[in-house]
Design a protein that fits this description.
By secondary structure, this protein is α/β, with parallel strands linked by helices. The chain contains eleven helices and nine strands. The longest helix is centred in the last third of the chain and has 19 residues. It is globular, with a radius of gyration of 18 Å. The chain starts with 12 loop residues before the first strand and ends with a helix.
Length: 294
């Protein structure tokens, strides 16, 4: 196992707090983002193996509407499994904060805590709402510099809006991420009110451009199987948003069309919240661990 020393913090990066957890360390950071143009927060869980200097696989978790970089780390109970398996966990915030754009805080499903993990092209959002570039082009390289992360063993997963983000970023950047999963993702945002509202605001009225951020549309146009090791999705059957907003069956159809292996599990009795996420987080971490250990 390759070993490294944890480097000093780069300029512009501040460690806000850290907490012992399952022999590892839960950390919360603030840094000056050049891609967003504002300070951004992110959280990291380092398992004991990373603290000992081992280079470890890492999984990005993208949280959902109304959440922040803290939500997953506080509610999902993921650290126990990550410590056991030697996985670094990374969660960015869900949007820029402090942009003070008109209407930015008027609704819970648009603006603050609702960045949809895309690069906005329509005014006024385009100046700051660049979450795709932030995660892939800025945060990822920063974390490779900051942490003992194996750049060739990166996974991505998410919940709800974050599930949408995980699937779309995985499909848009297949060389960056080697594994992907989602919990109750917005799987076909072109077909649902959340997605249509966000896309019209962030991307403008040209609906043809919206397909670039729709996981089902992206999958249907794949020329080869993007993730031959398989994609895992869990969906609660009692999820109050399932019928109107999520549409995992559309993503399933797209996977079947191109031959992408998909495990889509409908879980009886589970709703959309973190009781659901925490119930199946171990399965998802093990899904990533298996693919990132090959």
């Amino acid at each position: 196992m390759t070993s490294v020393s944890l480097p000093a913090l780069p300029a512009g990066v501040e460690l806000l707090s850290q907490h012992a957890s399952f022999g590892g360390r839960q950390q919360f950071y603030l840094h000056a983002s050049t891609e967003i143009g504002l300070p951004m927060r992110f959280s990291v869980y380092l398992p004991p193996q990373a603290l000992a200097g081992e280079v470890c696989p890492a999984i990005f978790f993208l949280a959902g509407l109304t959440c922040s970089e803290e939500t997953f780390m506080i509610k999902a109970g993921a650290q126990r499994v990550a410590a056991r398996e030697g996985l670094i966990l990374i969660t960015p915030d869900t949007s820029p904060r402090g942009a003070d754009l008109p209407g930015e805080s008027d609704a819970w499903d648009l603006g603050v805590a609702a960045g949809f993990y895309l690069n906005a092209t329509a005014a006024p959002w385009h100046q700051y709402y660049r979450m795709e570039s932030y995660i892939v082009e800025e945060l990822r390289p920063l974390l490779l510099q900051l942490l003992p992360v194996d750049a060739k063993r990166l996974g991505i997963m998410g919940h709800s809006m974050g599930g949408h983000g995980a699937l779309t970023l995985a499909l848009r950047h297949p060389g960056v991420f080697q594994s992907v999963s989602a919990l109750a993702p917005i799987a076909a945002p072109l077909r649902c009110p959340w997605g249509q509202k966000a896309f019209r605001a962030y991307l403008g009225d040209d609906e043809a451009s919206w397909a670039h951020y729709d996981a089902s549309a992206l999958m249907a146009h794949q020329q080869q199987v993007p993730y031959p090791g398989g994609i895992l999705i869990d969906q609660g059957e009692a999820d109050q948003f399932l019928v109107e907003q999520l549409h995992p069956h559309i993503f399933q159809d797209a996977c079947e069309q191109v031959g992408q292996p998909l495990t889509l599990r409908y879980q009886p009795g589970y709703d959309h919240g973190y009781y659901f996420v925490s119930s199946f987080i171990e399965d998802h971490l093990l899904h990533h661990h298996a693919q990132l250990s090959v």
